[in-house]
Design brief:
The complex is a heterodimer of chains A (94) and B (330). With 94 residues, chain A is an alpha+beta fold. Chain A has 2 helices and 3 strands. The chains are: A alpha+beta (94), B mainly alpha (330).
Chain lengths: 94, 330
């Protein structure tokens, strides 16, 4: 019981040159087996060209309760978005 | 369904006024269709209901491999064999996505498996029926996976993020399952009279159990009312069953099969097919463990668990030894 295989988080890079994306998790005794299992569990339909696995216990995450202090400050900074600026149409695409 | 008769808190949903501030904030987020994620605060009842529902769903995927696995080495052609292997492998994958989703709620994989083996957790009643002929493989894909899709499509909208995401992935893959099943039925119906008879016989045996998959009417169930308020189960059992009948009856007719229910008739006024009464006594018997294959299924799961023990432990021991060696070398 106590000898359960550890949990790994699986990240796959898709076909189109995008970054690795979290697709799910699985149990495996070590990294090599985790990659082998990830191949079978998460890429049965040619979904990826590269796999990363990370032990779930090695991931540090922000706490849900920190959502406000972490992300709200950016809400008010609308000048960071290009649509904040009115550029005359005559200037053309910018 | 793959999760049938999942017990919730056993009480009617609280009104917003009756809720604690935390519960109210939670319900407001659900009502606004904001997904709930693993480490966030959630009512204990929500967590427990989800564990029950997701684990039952996962167990169903895994036990569901057994009736089909039964035909892998007897598939009529190499093509059919390759397809069936791929389908059964998908079911294993679906079970794994779902176990992982359940584990995010704070229950371990070993606990989940023990709950299945001790009978504390259930799996869908449908997998307690035998697959007697090759046509059953067609009927299972077409009807059982068809009914599963009907359920899973609405579960993509479930309020719990990991479950919803698992459902989206599963739905993408599941369509192949239903189509390959219907393809088997089509091939048989284009075949000899014996083959046609075999297809009809499979439909006769799988039709009613497939309708039972959706579970008894939950129009008056407090469990369902709570699950719907929490958006764990967006659509009721009767509505899903009706959708399934409406979809399946024309598919049967198209290939010359007859649904084994004399009361099936298009109802112009309702815009739906009427259908006959389901034998719920049979459903409860099967759920209680008295279906044709309950014992066989559980024995197979128990054997797989026991036979795999040396493998699970061996690999873990190897991994620890290697890690220790690496540490010593550093």
């Amino acid at each position: 019981m106590s000898n359960e295989w550890p949990l790994w988080e699986v990240f796959i890079r898709g076909q189109h040159g995008l970054a690795h994306r979290h697709v799910g998790s699985l149990h495996a005794p070590d990294a090599e087996m985790a990659i082998n299992n990830a191949r079978d569990v998460y890429t049965r339909r040619n979904e990826g060209v590269s796999i990363w696995v990370v032990k779930a216990s090695d991931i540090s995450a922000s706490a849900p309760s920190d959502k406000g202090p972490l992300f709200e400050p950016s809400n008010s900074k609308i000048y960071r978005h290009p649509t904040f600026y009115d550029i005359p149409e005559e200037v053309g695409h910018m | 369904m793959y999760a049938q008769m999942v017990k919730s808190t056993g009480e009617r949903p609280k009104t917003l006024d009756e809720m604690t501030p935390e519960e109210r904030a939670f319900q407001t987020r659900i009502d606004a269709d904001i997904k709930i994620e693993p480490k966030e605060w959630m009512p204990e009842g929500y967590r427990k209901t989800l564990i029950r529902q997701i684990s039952q769903h996962a167990h169903s995927e895994v036990v569901g491999q057994l009736p089909e696995g039964n035909w892998i080495n007897r598939a009529p052609t190499l093509d059919r064999k390759a397809i069936l292997i791929a389908k059964v492998q998908d079911e294993a994958g679906h079970g794994l996505y779902l176990y992982c989703a359940a584990e995010t709620l704070g229950v371990s994989r070993d606990e989940l498996i023990q709950q299945l083996l001790t009978g504390k957790a259930k799996y869908s009643s449908i997998f307690n029926y035998p697959s007697l002929t090759w046509a059953d493989i067609g009927a299972i894909g077409w009807l059982v996976d068809g009914a599963a899709i009907m359920n899973q499509v609405q579960l993509q909208r479930c309020s719990y993020g990991p479950y919803s995401r698992a459902m989206i992935r599963i739905c993408k893959e599941e369509s192949f399952h239903q189509r390959q099943g219907y393809d088997i039925m089509m091939a048989l119906m284009r075949g000899s009279p014996e083959q046609q008879e075999m297809a009809q016989d499979a439909l006769n045996r799988w039709w009613w159990p497939s309708l039972m998959m959706f579970g008894p009417s939950d129009a008056d169930s407090v469990h369902s009312a709570q699950s719907m308020a929490w958006k764990i189960k967006p659509v009721g059992n009767d509505e899903l069953r009706q959708r399934f009948v409406d979809q399946t009856v024309p598919q049967a007719e198209f290939i010359g099969l007859k649904v084994p229910d004399p009361e099936v008739k298009w109802n112009e006024e309702r815009g739906h097919y009427d259908f006959g009464e389901i034998d719920w006594e049979e459903f409860y018997r099967v759920l209680k463990g008295e279906g044709p294959c309950n014992r066989e299924r559980m024995a197979a799961r128990q054997k797989a668990w026991d036979d795999g023990e040396w493998f699970r432990e061996g690999l873990m021991a190897h991994s620890k030894k290697r890690a220790a060696k690496k540490l010593a070398a550093e």
